[in-house]
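Please predict the structure of the following assembly.
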Amino acid sequence: MTNDAATKKWIESHPYLEGVAAFQALVEGAAAGAAPLTRRPAWDAYVADLAAGVPLLRSARAQLDVAPEGGAALRTIVARVAAADLPPSIAEGARALDEELRQDPRASEAAIAWLVCGALEKGETEGGGLVRYLGWTALQHVLAPVVAEFDRWRDEERWGRGDCPTCGSAPTMGALVTVAEGRGRRLACGACRTRWAFKRVACPFCGNDDAHRLGVLEIDQEPGLRLDVCEQCKGYVKTYTGTRDLDLVLADWPTLHLDVLARERGYERLGVSLYELGA
Ligand SMILES: [Zn+2]
Ligand SMILES: [Zn+2]
């Protein structure tokens, strides 16, 4: 199924997501024209930092400055969003941001640099929700070829961490996948869209690997989805056990209702969320 058809079908069965889906489509459409990065990191120089747990975008050795292209893409996206017909709560923020970026030619690049070096730690929320969402959407398009190349180049054994190897964000979701040894787990970054391998029985947020302190909450209405929960830090990972429409399901917004459910059960979202626009 194409992504568009899959999205349409998903919204039919989850009508309460229609608003967020429409906004997502608007932003994606604005970001689609962003020029992908043509420069590449200094892979050989980055090897030592990878082993030491330094994410690619924060490595001085990798020498990958994404601010110029990221900033240009952010300006375009913000201008498009500010001109769109949106609910007042978002429209006001978008217009203010557009104004700010127009007044200071360096502001867009500075915003991207802030996102990249200050990727949120687990569970942290701070101001700038809209710029974070639009900035990371810009970066997803700009960085796509680098993320793909990093995925092919990276020896997963050398990372093995719960946070994203590209940007350092805490994971937004997880998926069970088939690997040579049987079933493996991949975590998904909601900020830069990297996916990486992680131990199946361990919490990516606090490192707890005591199987008695880890649990699975099945969800009756969503057979392909579950919550992998940690009793030590009360964190959870929304986990997809299916295989169809992986890109759509792992995009985070299609499963925002599971975050509500997890909160009702006493768990806390520790993965980075781009959808807390009011924050
Ligand atoms: Zn990332
Ligand atoms: Zn934990």
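The longest strand covers residues 173-179. The radius of gyration is 18 Å.
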